[in-house]
Amino acid sequence: MVTHGSPNRRRSATPPSLEQQRDRQAQHRLAVLRDAEEVTGNVALNCRYYGISRTCFYKWLRRYQDEGLEGLRDRSGKPHRCPHATEPDVVNEIVYLRQYYHFGPMKIKMCLKRYHDIDIACSAVYRILKKLGMNRLPAAQRYQRHDKRYTRYEKQLPGNRVQIDVKFIEPIGLPEQTAAATPVTGTLPKRRRRAK
Predict the structure, then answer these.
(1) Are 33 and 64 within 8 A, CB to CB?
(2) Summary mean pLDDT of the chain
(3) In this model, does residue 105 exceed pLDDT 50?
């Protein structure tokens, strides 16, 4: 009877890390280069078999000759410089307005235009905030509707927390008529009722 291992022993099913994936990829590329050199001797045939272009093959070969196995690893596609990037001073102003005044992109744009004469789009402000992880304010600093800002509560007995202020105003009537104001025809104007 053959046993293939204890049922209590479990295999670790953790996925390979990013470093391990890069190592495997570099080893695969090295195998492609060696296969072309040692087995086939034909670069075009080897590239067709592995489904890569000859440009890619020669790029790998050049990197391997210059840097060794490290040159076969994947590199970042980030550009070395970006001429249209927002200047650091403007980014600092955006961060300051967000941290201390909790302004949104539209209000930040208006403040920069009005006080610093900096013209920047709302979408650019939002992209900068998102890149820095500041696009969402904490729950305590977010805008709340007026009907949710105040907590309504009830008391056990009616009238427990009621305060009424009353102001009494004297009735206002028509001013007293003088003899000069009486018309010649002799009909007096109708007097209004006194109103509060």
Answers:
(1) yes
(2) 80
(3) yes
pTM of the model as a whole: 0.42
Give the distance from CA 12 to its chain's centroid: 37
Q: Say whether 195 sits in a helix, a strand or coil.
A: strand
CB-CB contact of 57 with 105 (8 Å): no
Q: How far, in Å, CA of 41 to CA of 53, rounded? A: 16
3-state secondary structure of 172: strand
Q: What percent of the chain has pLDDT over 90?
A: 31
Residues 81, 76: Cα–Cα separation, whole Å: 13
Tokens found for residue 97: 């307005």
SS3 of residue 13 by DSSP = coil
Both tokens assigned to 173: 């009537």
